[in-house]
Amino acid sequence: METHKVIIVGPSAVGKTSLLNRFVHDEFVLRYKMTIGVDFLTKIIEYQPSKSVKLHIWDIGGQERFKFLHRSFYDGAAGALILFDLSRQHTFSSMKTWLSEMRNIMDKEIPKVIIGNKIDLIPEIGRIIEKSEVENYAKSENCFYMETSAKTGENVEKAFLELTQCMLGNGKTKI
Ligand code: GDP
Ligand code: MG
Prior knowledge:
This protein has six helices and six strands; from the N terminus they run βαββαβαβααβα. By secondary structure, it is an alpha/beta fold.
């Protein structure tokens, strides 16, 4: 089966590991270890009726602070999910830094989906980052934008599906 490498990037504690575990194992735990013992998890995704690909999904794990050392993390990636945390304002600007650094490191444009994670917290704390601001930014960067919750599972499959469809040339945003 065709296999594609997908990377999940973004600042610490935005829910990268949680999103991956929700997608691959359909589970959520309140406290994840900073570093996980594996480089990637694998999942087969059906991106069109009876058309499937295997995704190798790489989680940057505890390497967030040393990202400049890990060019190999980006090598061969066909798509990226770039996360920030809807409940913490500053993660939106750190996410932008991540995206521009990623562009500097990678020698080609790959499909990217920006993810505002922890949408389940919004009823409680309200919106602290204007949705239109994020949408405008995503548009200017030629990225798709989605809001997810690794906790409830909302939009998690959709986000991976959207990215996979972009990677295979059938998405709403073509790059
Ligand atoms: P990472 O450092 O980006 O990999 O973030 P983690 O996956 O380790 O998550 C950081 C913290 O946020 C953990 O306590 C998670 O339980 C919590 N978390 C992750 N995703 C969500 C979410 O969608 N909603 C809520 N409420 N908490 C989340
Ligand atoms: Mg993690």
